[in-house]
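Box 3.1 A note on notation
Throughout this textbook, protein chains are presented in two layers. The first layer is the amino acid sequence; the second is a token string describing backbone geometry. Keep the layers aligned when reading.
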Amino acid sequence: MGFCYPGKNATGDLPPRPECAPLWHHQLLAKMKSVKLTLLIGQFSQKFYLGDKFKPTLTENVRNYREFLPTYLPLVHPSPRNKIWQKKNPWFELEVVPQLRKIVSKQLVL
């Protein structure tokens, strides 16, 4: 979201710098004419791109990923710190990951 590493705090990485996405994303996306799917990895990207459609939690966004297709697919950040989240939400590995693979595979063939 911020195009730079924001550094660390006591609990992990700092959030992305707030001025970057509004300043740069629209300019970059305007140059990418054939984007078929945007992976929204983590709550910051989900809040930015889903706007009013953002649900109260990241988990709810990921669980309800179908509502955002075909434009967006909300995902949890693939960090070792999220292994606990993945254990609490086994449906992610069973349902969302195979769907992600299917969508990406289909796009790569086209």
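Residues 1-34 form one domain. The chain has a mean pLDDT of 92.
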